[in-house]
Amino acid sequence: xxxxxxxxxxxxxxxxxxxxxxxxxxxxxxxxxxxxxxxxxxxxxxxxxxxxxxxxxxxxxxxxxxxxxxxxxxxxxxxxxxxxxxxxxxxxxxxxxxxxxxxxxxxxxxxxxxxxxxxxxxxxxxxxxxxxxxxxxxxxxxxxxxxxxxxxxxxxxxxxxxxxxxxxxxxxxxxxxxxxxxxxxxxxxxxxxxxxxxxxxxxxxxxxxxxxxxxxxxxxxxxxxxxxxxxxxxxxxx
Length: 238
Hints:
The chain is an alpha+beta fold. The chain has eleven helices and seven strands. The protein has a five-stranded mixed beta sheet with strand order 5-4-3-6-7. Strands 1-2 form a two-stranded antiparallel ribbon.
């Protein structure tokens, strides 16, 4: 990346491209060498301040090299993990989980932030494979919350999300007291179609729903009011 690219605006309103990479490197620096002893054992967050001081003092070339070193160290850690390590109880940003589940959250974070950079710069990304499946899984695991709380689909209503492209699938959801994913809906009230990348980016609050609707990247059939509400209220991340 040249200077203009490093300092171009990312999809994160508060960060340029270097800011996104700084964030990713920060968490990997914190996690390097750490394995949770229990769900109450938090990562060594005292590393955050020194990390930011170190990175702020580096020019772009030295910054890129240092991030590469941090990522290499973290990959070496991950390569040594056993199944028992993945099953450890762990602190995570969404509450106690297994350490393997924490790593899935990290994959989701990287997947989204990678596109925070690549989408504005027009760079291609690999939108298939295990990382895409894990990133999409973080959204689909919360689809009941998204439909019930964010979209606010009324009781008795149903929706099917038709996701196209790599990792594509159908996601039927019904509201019966509470919203929940189901295997099949015979006659859904609304059907919304979009590609998996747009779906995840909308769920992460990274892109403007209206622009995706205007571009024909998000469409729906059935109940127009519910479809419009669904298209505009997929965001579930903080």
